[in-house]
Amino acid sequence: xxxxIFAATALLMSVSQMxxxxxxxxxxxxxxxxxxxxxxxxxxxVTADAFFASVRQDTAVLAADRKQGVFxxxxxxxxxxxxxxxxxxxxxxxxxxxxxxxxxxxRDYGVDRGVLLAFWAFETDFGAFQGDFNTANALVTLxxxxxxxxxxxxxxxxxxxxxxxxxxxxRRTTGAWAGEIGMVQMLPRxxxxxxxxxxxxxxxxxxxxxxxxxxxxAAMLHDLGWRAGExxxxxxxxxxxxxxxxxxxxxxxxxxxxxxxxxTPRMGSLHxxxxxxxxxxxxxKGPAFIAYPNFRVYFDWNQSFTxxxxxxxxxxxxxxxxxxNAGQPDTGLNSxxxxxxxxxxxxxxxxxxNIDGILxxxxxxxVRAEQARLGLVVDGWPTPALLSLL
Length: 390
Known about the structure:
Helix content: 40-55%
Shape: globular
Number of strands: 7
Largest sheet: 5 strands, antiparallel
CATH architecture of the domain at 233-318: Orthogonal Bundle
Distance between the termini: 31 Å
Strand order of the largest sheet: 4-6-7-3-5
Structural class: mainly alpha
Number of helices: 18
CATH class of the domain at 233-318: Mainly Alpha
């Protein structure tokens, strides 16, 4: 589920801040409160009535929100599931088909075509499946749910604004379970703030127009801080005596410093003059990458480390990079074992976030701390051996 961090308009922001704690309770009462908030932002009462008239709670959305097992897969397995020769070939074919659109993106936003092609592939398989959840129902259901009301309540108000502009149909607009719409899956506020009419027909249609979707996605990445003309990820080779504890996004060194420590590109060259981090998603025996500042922008599209690594890597493959060297990583943990590990780490006083079986940033940091305490290789990769020691 993608996180949006765009600055709202002052009015939307003030309403959101007042309503952050408002969630749960009677769904009908909650909808009435949302309607009142929409009107307070300047929406005509008749428009607000029309938007919310058909809204219903969707339990399937809540089930999907709580079941994201694919993100429990390690990087190698996850990337092999999502990346195929067919997807690479279709990605390159789409790069040629929309060459003028990507040239415009490069000129206006400085985002590499491989980056957008990877998102387009992963989010909707190049537009083939954009989700069949009713978007209005999904957003209101998630706003009512008390897990992330501060994220989804403003999205409901943004959807009402899109409806007022004739760009959203609360009865018929469909998308992902988390409320994203279109070929590259953008939330309503993303569309309000970064929607681009790429095909010149006078409207922004992310569901039916690839130029609109691609240019809007590029505008969103640019707004998030994408740095034009800079790389995002490069596969590297590390020396056997490398200080594994220096890996991870927490450690940033200049590229020249990493080079002095023996970090070498597997193909091509490293980009001098940038700060970067060395990442080993499956420990010191698995693949290794150097991540540049643009890599961090990915986390504002999706918070899953595994998804981000795979999307960033796939973008490099579309640009001609070879298949990564998988190495021979130590066996990791299955979902139940990971939950047990997280429970034990939490008992040790570590903040691992939710006990969800997903190797997220908090769990990786805690694993590193315990590896250091126990005299193990500090690479952030949890193994059955670590679990038994805890």
